[in-house]
Amino acid sequence: MSMEQYRAAQKAGKKELQTLATQKLPTEMPALDAILEHTDISGEIPLGLVDIPTELIVGTKTIGRTSSFAPNFMPILGENTEFAAKWAALCDAHLREGIRDPIVAYEYMNHYYVQEGNKRVSVLKFFDAISVPGYVTRIIPAREDTKESRLYYEFLEFYNATSINYLFFSKEGSYLHLAYHLGHRRYERWSMDDRIIFRSCYNRFADAFKELGGDRLHMTVGDAMLIYLDLFDYDQLKDETPSEIKENLKKMWAEFELKNAQETPSVKFDPSPVQKKNILTKLLSASEEEPITRIAFINRKTPETSSWTYAHELGRLYLKDAFHGTVQSKAYDDISGTDNAIAAIEQAIADGYEMIFTTSPEFLSASLRAAVNHPEVKILNCSLNSSHKYIRTYYGRMYEAKFLIGVLAGIMTDTNKIGYIADYPIYGMTANINAFALGVKMVNPKAKIYLEWSTLKENEHVDLTAKLYSVGATYISHQDMIIPRKITRQFGLFRVNGETPVNLAFPAWNWGKYYERIIRNVQNGIWNTEEKSDANKALHYWWGMSSDVIDVVWSSAIPDETRHLLDTLSNAIRNYEFNPFDGILHSQQGLVSKDATHSLSPHEIISIDWLTDNIVGRIPTADELREDAQNVVRQEGIRKEEPTL
Question: In this structure, are residues 139 and 41 in contact, taking their beta carbons and an 8 Å threshold?
Answer without folding.
Answer: yes
